[in-house]
Amino acid sequence: MTATVLMVGTRKGLWIGSSDARRAEWSWTGPHFDMMEVYSCLVDTRGGAPRLFAGASSPWTGPQIQVSDDLGETWQVTGGAHFPDDVDASVERVWQLVPGTRDGVVYAGTEPGAVFRSEDGGATFALERGLWDHPHREQWDAGFGGQAFHTILPHPTDPDSVTVAISTGGCYQTDDGGATWQPRNVGIRAEFRPEGDQYPEFGQCVHKVARHPDVPDRLFLQNHGGVYRSDDHAATWKSIADGLPAEFGFSIVVHPHEPETVFVFPINGGDRRYPPDAHAAVWRSRDAGETWEQLDQGLPEDFYVAVMRDAMCTDDHKQPGVYFGARNGAVWGSPDGGESWSQVVANLPDVMTVRASAI
């Protein structure tokens, strides 16, 4: 029987759940990396047997990238992401861990805003110097959560092409293996800037970008204020927020088998970082954002917390599950693509990242 593994990274450790049915029966281990911030995790199934990655950090040991080949029973510290000696900076957190297109390639996105690449399955990482040395970097600001590359999207068929996003700097893209990077923000509004200057070349507060591998030139983006789609590999963007109860949000996720199906979790902007009317709901579009429908069967009516940018995901079953974790320490799952929901775990610390996979 195919099982499901669910990794939940929090501000006080990592929990790992497993289930055969994806409904009531989940078994959990944790906390792994007790009292360490876990902002990123990855279930890498490219080698057949799953390898788990976790980006954990503490004020005493600093940031670490750890791997497990036995579903979390044991962990090994990798070489981690570190700036070379000639760079006057130090990694504070690992915000993103993503498999590359080539075997053995793993990307890490960090705070401060940098991207690192491993060619040996995560054993060692090297700084993407072309991005770090970009002339825009000195003008990137830090959002309320810090300045970090939280999105890394390797092109599914072109290993030299990668799209990344940073808060607050916007989207950037390379098509030459990282030697050069270009901003890709045309059409994305920076609502916090003065009138007349809300569509800059860079400086947008992008929260998350997602794509389906079968349609690599189409990308979906959740901005600080706005939901967008690009049909030309991020060269231009158009708003697809009509029909949503709010344009603000952090997460955006694409269905693993349906390229036009996308999920978001809208929340209020400003100081009220919880869903409109405090009603928990995932919103789904089945036509690439032209129309939206609310999915809330089984979700709580009173929900005064946010869902962060990496705290929502799908698994890759034939009938995919959808999951989100909230800042109240609860994780909710839907084994039927969002039609119905149940709580899979509660009372964890502040959830920062959720990743799931069939194994």
Architecture overview:
This is Exo-alpha-sialidase. With 359 residues, the chain is mostly beta strands. The chain has one domain: YVTN repeat-like/Quinoprotein amine dehydrogenase (Methylamine Dehydrogenase, Chain H), CATH 2.130.10.10. Helix content is 1%, strand content 40%. It is built from one helix and 28 strands. The strands form seven sheets. A four-stranded antiparallel β-sheet has the order 3-2-1-28, with no helix packed on it. It has a four-stranded antiparallel β-sheet with strand order 4-5-6-7, with no helix packed on it. Strands 8-9-10-11 form a four-stranded antiparallel β-sheet. 50% of the residues are buried. The model has no long low-confidence stretch (mean pLDDT 95).
Number of domains: 1
Shape: globular
**Unreliable stretches:** none
* Main sheet: strand order: 3-2-1-28
| Beta-strand fraction estimate | 35-45%
Structural class: mainly beta
**CATH architecture annotation name:** 7 Propeller
Number of discrete helical segments: 1
Estimated radius of gyration: 19 Å
Keyphrases for this structure?
single chain; mainly beta; Methylamine Dehydrogenase, Chain H; four-stranded antiparallel β-sheet
What's the layout of helices and strands?
Elements: E1 4-10, E2 13-19, E3 27-32, E4 37-44, E5 51-58, E6 62-68, E7 76-77, E8 93-99, E9 106-111, E10 114-118, E11 126-127, H1 129-132, E12 148-154, E13 162-167, E14 170-174, E15 182-183, E16 206-211, E17 219-223, E18 226-230, E19 238-239, E20 249-254, E21 262-266, E22 282-285, E23 293-295, E24 312-314, E25 322-325, E26 331-334, E27 342-345, E28 351-358
Antiparallel strand pairs: 1-2, 1-28, 2-3, 4-5, 5-6, 6-7, 8-9, 9-10, 10-11, 12-13, 13-14, 14-15, 16-17, 17-18, 18-19, 20-21, 21-22, 22-23, 24-25, 25-26, 26-27
